[in-house]
Write a structure and sequence with these properties.
7% of the residues lie in helices and 37% in strands. With 252 residues, the chain is mostly beta strands. The strands form 6 sheets. Strands 1, 4, 6, 7, 8, 9, 11, 12 and 13 form a 9-stranded antiparallel beta sheet that branches. The chain has a 3-stranded antiparallel beta sheet with strand order 17-14-21, with no helix packed on it. Strands 18-19-20 form a 3-stranded antiparallel beta sheet. The chain binds zinc ion. Zinc ion (ZN) is lined by residues 21, 35, 37, 39, 123.
Length: 252
């Protein structure tokens, strides 16, 4: 199968990537199944660090653990809510923990064969939040409101993961809260909540007028917000980040 030796974005130290299973519809025996990413092997000789797995791009580690199917695995959240996953790592090799900010190319662990795996390999995949319809082919939408894309063009440098605004269906501007919404310290539900005491004076004033209660620690329906930045399904207002899925744009 294809070799991606001169990959611009190394996933393995030395940039050595031999793909053993591509993305998309695969036949395994008589069964069709959807492979959400690519499987890569490195050199058999691992003495030179050939089995080191590198972070695809800057981001925040949101999973570093073990599951029976993924084996030892890491998930990294990048700009725009894009998530990369690295599976079947060698036991005891994970070098990062949840909450770590990693840099592109940083070693996060070693290739292994843990979990649902029969030979040493790295399963790598890239997903965008939501049911994103991308301009190029090679995508499918999973049942969990996540879109996986073929990682190959991203690994070879042909495409780069888009910036947050390009992957968000939302734009900046004025929004009205339609259903009570939590406020977060970052663009995602994995970030801690911002509580009422830390809301801006303007937000507290609006909550009072709308009959909201401080102990609810959320933004009630009817609040008008200035969204200055979007990242995936989240928007930033002066008090913090909120899910724009629970809001309606009012200035277009
Ligand atoms: Zn795989």
């Amino acid at each position: 199968m294809a070799e991606i030796i001169n990959a611009k974005i190394p996933l393995l130290k030395k940039g050595y990537h031999r793909m053993t299973l591509p993305f998309g519809n695969q036949k395994l025996g008589d069964e069709d199944y959807l492979h959400k990413g690519i499987d890569l092997t490195g050199k058999t000789d691992v003495s030179g660090g050939y089995d080191n797995i590198l972070a695809f791009a800057d981001g925040e580690v949101i999973t570093a653990g073990y599951l029976s199917d993924t084996g030892y695995w890491v998930r990294i959240r990048h700009t725009g809510g894009i998530i990369t996953r690295y599976m079947h790592m060698k036991k005891g090799s994970i070098k990062v923990k949840v909450g770590d900010n990693v840099k592109k190319g940083q070693v996060i662990g070693s290739m292994g064969s843990t979990g649902n795996s029969t030979a040493r390999h790295l399963h790598f995949d890239i997903s965008y939040p939501g049911n994103v319809v991308l301009k190029h082919g090679g995508f499918y939408v999973s049942s969990q409101n996540v879109t996986y894309v073929d990682p190959v063009p991203y690994v070879t440098g042909e495409k780069s993961i888009a910036t947050s605004t390009a992957t968000s269906k939302y734009t900046t501007g004025k929004y009205k809260v339609v259903r009570a919404v939590n406020v977060r310290k970052g663009a995602g539900t994995e970030h801690p909540r911002v509580m009422y005491k830390d809301f801006t004076a303007n937000a507290k004033e609006q909550i009072k007028k709308l009959g909201g209660k401080p102990e609810d620690n959320d933004f009630p329906a009817g609040m008008i917000l200035d969204i200055s930045k979007v990242d995936g399904n989240f928007g930033r207002c002066p008090s913090g980040w909120i899910s724009l899925n629970l809001c309606k744009k009012t200035d277009n």
